Amino acid sequence: MKTKRLASIALITLSIACASSKKPAENTAGATPASASKDLPGTKYVKVAKDGSLVYIPDEKGNIIPDFSRVGFYGGDMEIPDIAVVKTVNATGTDADQTIIQNAIDEVSKREADKNGFKGAILLKKGLYRIPSTIKIESSG
Q1: Nearest Cα to 85, choosing from 111, 55, 62, 63?
Q2: 18-35: pLDDT as tens digits
Q3: Which of 13, 64, 67, 95 is most solvent-facing, going by the fewest CB within 10 Å?
Q4: The pTM is what?
């Protein structure tokens, strides 16, 4: 129960900090002692520094809340590209789904890459896909 509460506090604090900060929140490399961060706004475990960065306060065991502010496509520094759908796959709900998906990947892999290095996207329509073994992607793009 305490873990869920800490995670909720971190997400709420992170949202507030990011919304009120002029620059993205970033980890301040390590934790700051609670006594040094008493005057900062935030919660018991996460504070917002004057520069807008987040300061993580360890609990009694030395644990800090993980900083997920740099996850995502290129760490959030680039927009997710808009890649044209070149193949659409529909679920059959059978083991044949694996072969259908693998064939689509193999087909798109043979395409020439565009000026941005992309060969195209495969759209998997809504449904239950049964994949009993491994699917391989053997080329990029």
Answers
A1: 111
A2: 343 333 344 444 444 545
A3: 95
A4: 0.52
